Amino acid sequence: MGDILFLAHRVPYPPDRGDKIRSFHMLRHLAAQRPVHLAAFADDPRDMDRPELADCTASRAIVRRGKSQAVAGIQALASGRPLSLTAFDDWAMRRAVEAVLARENIDTIFVFSSQMAQYLPAEGGQRVIMDFVDMDSAKFAAYAQAAKGPMRWIYAREARLLVAAETAVAARADASLFVSEAEAGLFRRTTGAERVHAIENGIDTGFFDPSARFERVEAGPALIVFTGQMDYRPNVEAVMWFAEDILPQIRVARPDARFAIVGRNPTDAVRALARQEGVIVTGEVNDVRGWLAAAALVVAPLKLARGIQNKVLEAMAMARPVVASAAAAEGVDHNGTIAVAETAGGMMEAVTLLLRDPQNAVELGRDARARVIARYGWDARLAPLDALVGLRARLGEAA
């Protein structure tokens, strides 16, 4: 029985953003049963050395990613390839992957995110598991529909080239994974691909537990919280929409309402929101749980969302009442334990009702945590992965 090579477009630690949460738990799950060799990019200097990964990796090859968007854009136009791929095309990573394949007995390659599929060997005979997570081409197609001028052409080009690349990778892979059945179904319908499976995200309900030990945040009774990576376009659009179109209406009924935008790398546009009455922009925080615990409620007003939103699961696990857009709630099997609103008026009304009725908010949060515990434990969510990677069959053969 051979080892696993795990390719990731970001170092899967710390698990403090959506993609790194999923990749970390995938990596740890696989490493519990077979040796795993990690090859990953670091876009943060702190990720060049993460000793915490030593317990779940047999070896690590980390490559610093420093290519600018301008250079990646020129390469994409010159090569006819998607910008999403040229941005992660790096000779040092190719050499690192080749070295692992030459040195180790690798019989399975687990590819996390489509950007890393370009490092698959032309010939090798290894089992290939491709975790697309979301269908990136569909995201860019949605961007194109909403854009105007040159950006419409750029996004449409990216969507067209990406779907061709995704189709080709899926044809080669032994299994293609997506974070929800909705994403998996969309991929099947769009590409005609077979061997497509949904492996949902989970949540560490021991860590995200309101009774756990963590640094508390002092806040008033009407704190509304949003969490996320704040240079990610859907998150930026979400908080701007909420702060500019929804929060002012809420503050008519609740002048003490405040909106905290919690997450690293806020763009200039997000930082500018802090000049608005009632808006807080924190930037990176050491532990998001303090802000979640302090929240009267958590909002997820995303207009564009793919798959299962970790931010929603985390808030539910922290027993917070959640008001989410239909897009943000779509992939979450919440069984009515979160409030869903389609419009700015609907979101304003849902938030205001919860602020007016703290007891109902507490009960909704309690039900949300119970739902997450029952439905989204990581062990249960990742159990189908074993058969796809061949763990159960091989363990059975060894017995």
TrEMBL record:
<dbReference type="Pfam" id="PF13692">
    <property type="entry name" value="Glyco_trans_1_4"/>
</dbReference>
<dbReference type="InterPro" id="IPR017521">
    <property type="entry name" value="Sugar_tfrase_PEP-CTERM_Stp1"/>
</dbReference>
<keyword id="KW-0808">Transferase</keyword>
<protein>
    <submittedName>
        <fullName>Glycosyl transferase family 1</fullName>
    </submittedName>
</protein>
<dbReference type="GO" id="GO:0016757">
    <property type="term" value="F:glycosyltransferase activity"/>
</dbReference>
